[in-house]
Amino acid sequence: MSTAAPPSTREPHVHDRISARIGGIAESATLAVDAKAKALKAAGRAVIGFGAGEPDFPTPAPIVAAAQAACGDPKSHRYTPAAGLPELRAAVVEKTARDSGLPLAAGQVLITNGGKQAVYQAFATLIDPGDEVLLPAPYWTTYPEAITLAGGLPVVVTTGPDADYLPSVEQLEAARSARTKVLLWCSPSNPTGAVASRELTEAVGRWAVDNGIWVVTDEIYEHLVYDGAEAVSMPVAVPELADTCVVVNGVAKTYAMTGWRVGWMAGPSDVIKAATNLQSHLTSNVCNVAQRAALAAVSGPLDAVAEMRAAFDRRRRTIVELLSEIPGVRCPVPRGAFYAYPSVQELIGRTLRGARIGDTVGLAAAILEHAEVAVVPGEAFGTSGFLRFSYALGDDDLRTGVERIATLLAEVR
Questions:
Q1: For 98, 132, 194, 209, which has the most beta carbons within 10 A of its beta carbon?
Q2: Residue (of 313, 330, 342) closest to 227 by Cα position
Q3: pLDDT tens-digit series, residues 5-34
């Protein structure tokens, strides 16, 4: 027979309103910049936004039509397996073999609510508290937050424009410790647009195998490469890595489907099964209508993708040319994704309209205030002295936005 416990004589514990785990998460800097730009636009200011990594094209019509048809299908009104629609998982297998040459089975694929969920679940599944993750910088803003939330410790490996923002094996080795478990790899890169060569990809992959290190490789920009660059999947370049590698991908960037929220993670079946168990309690299945749209996307032709890539390529060349003409701005030529990541280190410490430029956070704020152009400071990506420009916006806005910045920065003293 149970009895009630006597009242405690201890002082009541005062809890923080927000847990330390969640309270330590920083807001997404890119989404914050985009939200501020949109708020200023709504207030009547003619703001041009280079902040969000979001194609300005509509989702291709056949994909939208597939979603419309799915809305009327009663099967879409019910739960489906947490791992995703079987047809979509099978289509991702075929798409991955077609596009990167990586062989998979359907049991090695988990459909997620966008690439961000895939990134978090990969780290949550692989790392224990105290495990270290090697994180080349500049990095996408979500990576360190996902690592930390999963209990890991990001170990930043800083790169620069002279190395095309890519880490060397020697840098990775210098950062490795007995606690290193995972390397995060992203090529083509957000935020820099850098694309690792086949030789570097293979060398890093072999180093990971030799040292028993897992790789989480983000391949969401695989179709957006230029100037003959090649997006090489690391487990394809180094087949021995396949059993210790998780590939993250999705439809957002390739098919202009950022709002549809469909991504996936692919890897060893035991890892995918464990991540599926997590997702079954976290979000269950991804929206069925969005999954049907994604099925049409990955199963269909790449004609619309080629048209968008041609537009991005044109804008890429334009933005590099315009930025390179601004004194104090050094812009390496990106070969992938839709970002430029110029160095503005020569401007730090100088004066603009009577105020000292202390860092790129302050410079980005001044550009937004005085030129009405939204850019993301490099601090958001782990490297001060840089600005990220997404050139996934209209040609006219792109040119006008950079010209406004050039006019403002001409006042730097």
A1: 194
A2: 313
A3: 444 454 555 668 898 888 888 777 777 777
